[in-house]
Amino acid sequence: DLYFLRHDGQAVTCDDFLAALADANQVDLSAFSSWYSQAGTPEVTITRTAQSADEIELTLQQSIPETAAGTATTAQPIPIRLGLVGTQGQQHSFSLDGEAAAAEQTVLLTDPEQTVKLTLSPPAGEPVVPSALRGFSAPVRLTDDLSVEELAVLAAHDADGFNRYEACQRLAHLALDKRLSTDTPDAEIEQALASALSQTFAEAGLRGDYKALCLSVPGQSEVEHRANMADPVAIWTARQALQGALGQQLSDQISSCLADDGLVQAAAGRALRNRCLYLGVAAGMDEAVKVAAEQSSDLNMTLSMGGLSALNVTEHPERQACLNRFYERWRSSSLVMEKWLSLEACAPYSGTISQLQRLMWDAVFDADNPNKLRSVLGAFARANPVQFHKADGSGYQFIAEQIADMDSRNPQIAASLALVLTRFGHIEPGRQAEMIKAVQGLARRQLSANLHEIVAKALDTTS
């Protein structure tokens, strides 16, 4: 409130904002100004150096990686909100530095390394799991020493919504890492994740859209950037396989969700229903395929797209039939046809280059309309890793040719689309070489200023 009283309608600085926060809370926040002057995301590591029924000792460390900005890398004040979760979901109270016991406490990490002691009150009669960075109390990268079993406890029971979701994502990352490194699933990890998600399903107090969020697996781009040398097609395959496995293990809950017609009445319920549809179709559940086909004709666009999206990543015969019906119903609506174009372009099995060429000859496509270009070429390059990242480089060459063709008509769209070809630093060597070859082909052409800059900068990183 003080901030608005002082500055409503004014042009203000970060210092003004910090001063208002400090004055309103009667605390010195000057140390936090380093967050505005130092580049780079702090990396925080939390490890348990001792643990008993009545006390846990944590060692907290922070560091800031060197960045191109070359700014200082001194320790920053980092508020870390902590909680303790029992194996059956009980939130345990504890005290910190003699303060009154509470279910949550905040540690201010100001040094490169600090040790804190959490005194449980009363002592725990069961193992407890630290839940750190609750509410995303600081924008940092966190590393800790939690086991698969402990992550499963947080994924199933953490009272903090952010950390519960994060635990689900971390288990999914571990499952994907195993599938990618050995080409086989880790039954322990995937069972732990499925059990936690089953618990999430059962909690009536959780919103449907939050449940849908927990049921999602890490995105394609996120997994690619975690990998050392990413194979996008293998990552897509692993993600689909994991979702199919989760769908099989959660088939009872998915069936109950799909049978609950009341879910579609609210946006949160529709989000959960669509997520269940995707998992069910990925698992090969006939019931889910049937519901997805029926739902694809719904007049509610969220439900219709949910059904089509679930079918779109399969080779099921219902997929094309549903897309054809969607096309015939909505062909006179230009905006809706952009959704149809995107679905066709990002289909992993049928969204081939020849299919894209057919789409670009369709009556609903307009080569001079930026949104239509994004719906076909953008969707293909950004959301169809199977076809765009074909090992022979044909997907890269096709997009490069389209970029060169549209550069004279719409240089802004051409430059934006070119970015997907230049993000090859994390891609495995074979495909990386094909991407570079496509970018080099663009460099030999007469390009607009924006596109030339993007291409030149990308090639500079290869020399």
Sequence-ordered SSE layout with sheet pairings:
Elements: H1 2-7, H2 14-25, H3 34-37, E1 43-51, E2 55-63, E3 78-86, E4 91-92, E5 94-96, E6 104-109, E7 113-120, E8 128-132, E9 141-144, H4 148-157, H5 161-182, H6 187-202, H7 208-215, H8 220-226, H9 232-249, H10 251-259, H11 267-282, H12 286-295, H13 301-312, H14 317-330, H15 334-345, H16 353-359, H17 370-383, H18 385-388, H19 394-406, H20 411-422, H21 429-443, H22 449-460
Parallel strand pairs: 1-9
Antiparallel strand pairs: 1-2, 2-7, 3-4, 3-6, 3-8, 5-7
Helix pairs in contact: 4-5, 4-6, 5-6, 5-7, 5-9, 6-9, 7-11, 9-11, 10-11, 11-12, 11-13, 12-13, 14-15, 15-17, 17-20, 19-20, 19-21, 20-22, 21-22
Quaternary structure classification: single chain
Q: Order the strands across the largest sheet as they lie in space.
A: 5-7-2-1-9
Integer average pLDDT: 95
Give the tally of β-strands.
9
CATH T-level fold name of the domain at 43-145? Immunoglobulin-like
**Main beta-sheet annotation:** 5 strands, mixed
The percentage helix is: 40-55%
CATH architecture of the domain at 43-145: Sandwich
β-sheet strand percentage? 5-15%
Q: Structural class, from secondary structure content?
A: alpha+beta
Give unreliable regions as ranges. none
Number of helices: 22
Q: Please identify which CATH superfamily of the domain at 43-145 we are dealing with.
A: Aminopeptidase N, middle-beta domain
What distance separates the N and C termini? 53 Å
In the CATH hierarchy, what is the class of the domain at 43-145? Mainly Beta
